[in-house]
Each structure stands twice: as structure tokens, then as C-alpha cells.
Amino acid sequence: MEGFTLKGWGRVVAPICNSPRMSGTVIWITGLSGAGKTTLAGLLLARMRCTSRPVLGLDGDILRTVFPIEGGYTADKRVKLAHSYARLCREVSLQGIDVVCATISMFHAVRRWNRENIQNYVEIYLEVPLAVLRMRDAKGLYGAYARGEESSLVGVDVEAELPENPDFVIQNLGDTSPEKAVDMIWERFLADRAVSPSTAKK
């Protein structure tokens, strides 16, 4: 079969959502390893999927396999990786899609870029003292570090640039359930989203 050529069209650039009303919202959930980012993001994502708006969930652990880095995670490479996450969130949101991104990405420059370049940006910081994280050690990373089996752990031997002006801080010390935290985020930032009646009945 012969192909065909469309003549005279030139280069066509698809329009993007330049209006804050049309652009998607990026919920950037950050915190040290074991702070509860993935749990909170998963519950928030499930709530947002009950609305009529499309939403995409991104998780740092998975994104590291999408944007692999060779030669170890040096400081420069970590910043570059975090910027890749941020740019992905921006591009998706410009298509009118909401994004929930759970990532450590403890860099002032990345969060500053987010605020300057993402129209509807909400930064959620899960604050947990390092001593509590070591005690919980949900992923076993802190114990592995203590045994010399793990290195380059953010907040331990890699400096963490903690958020200076997040939109919302949740101190995850065990007295606030993940469901309650989702309720607080919803009421503060997403209350204008109507839940689909057909989905809510399920």
C-alpha cells in the first residue's frame, strides 16, 4: 500500500491549556523516605478518580525506573531527576489532567521551578522527625543504612533541603489517619470538584 502526503499544512502545534481554569492541578506530595507519601497519594488519587476530571498518579519509586540514572545517585543527578519529574507534571497538567506526584525531591530549586512554571501547584509536606522514621522503618532502608548495607539516604548522609513554604504541612506522627489527611487536603484545595454520583454509590 502506498503512503500519502498532506501538502501545505506546515508544522501544527496542538494548543495547550494556558488558562489556570483549564490547566490541571499538580499535587506535589513530598517528605523523607517512610513519611507516608505513597499511602497518602494513593488515597487522594482514589478520591480524585471519583470526579469527572482525569487524574494521573506518579510515584518516585516507579519514576526512577522510568528515568534510570547510571553511575549512582550523585547530588547533581538527583536534582536532574527531580527536575524531570517536575517537567513531566507540568506537561501533563497542561493537557488539562490533574496530577498527584509522591516524591522526596528535597531541593529548593525544584520546588521553586514548580511554583514558577506550574499554574495550579499545591505542595504538601509530610513532616516526620528522623527519629520516628528510623523507628518505623517501613521500607527497611534506615536499618539497612545502620548495618552498612545502604548509603545515600536523604536526610541521613544526603542533605535534605526541607520545604520552606509548602501550601500544607501534615505532621504524620500517628494521630492523623491517612483518610483524615485526604479529607483536609480535599477541603482546602479540591472542594470545587464534584464527586460523580454513579461512582460514589460503588
What's this entry about, in short?
The chain has 202 residues and is of the alpha/beta class. Helix content is 38%, strand content 14%. Helix 1 (37-48) packs across helix 7 and helix 3 (75-93) runs parallel beside helix 4.
What does this structure look like?
The protein is built from 8 helices and 5 strands, in the order E-H-E-H-H-E-H-E-H-H-E-H-H. It has 202 residues and is of the alpha/beta class. The chain has a domain at 25-130 and 160-192: Rossmann fold. Strands 2-3-1-4-5 form a 5-stranded parallel sheet, sandwiched between helices. Helix 1 packs across helix 7 (178-189) and helix 3 (75-93) packs parallel to helix 4 (108-117). The radius of gyration is 19 Å and the shape is globular. The termini are far apart. Residues 198-202 have low confidence and may be disordered.
Give me the secondary-structure topology:
Elements (H helix, E strand, L loop, with lengths): L24 E6 L6 H12 L6 E5 H7 L8 H19 L4 E5 L5 H10 L2 E8 L2 H7 L4 H6 L21 E4 L6 H12 L7 H4 L2
Parallel strand pairs: 1-3, 1-4, 2-3, 4-5
Helix pairs in contact: 1-7, 3-4
Strand order of the largest sheet: 2-3-1-4-5
Please mark out the parts with pLDDT under 50 across 5 or more consecutive residues, or reply none: 198-202
Give the SSE order as H and E letters.
EHEHHEHEHHEHH
In the CATH hierarchy, the architecture of the domain at 25-130 and 160-192 is 3-Layer(aba) Sandwich
Instruction: Please identify the structural class as seen in this structure.
Output: alpha/beta
- The helix content, as a percent range, equals 25-40%
Beta-strand fraction estimate: 5-15%
What is the 3D form? globular
CATH superfamily of the domain at 25-130 and 160-192: P-loop containing nucleotide triphosphate hydrolases
Separation of termini?
49 Å
Question: Count of DSSP helices?
Answer: 8
Number of strands: 5
Q: What's the level 1 CATH class of the domain at 25-130 and 160-192? A: Alpha Beta
Radius of gyration based on Cα positions: 19 Å
* Biggest beta-sheet profile: 5 strands, parallel
Q: Quote the average pLDDT.
A: 84
Q: What do we call the CATH topology of the domain at 25-130 and 160-192?
A: Rossmann fold
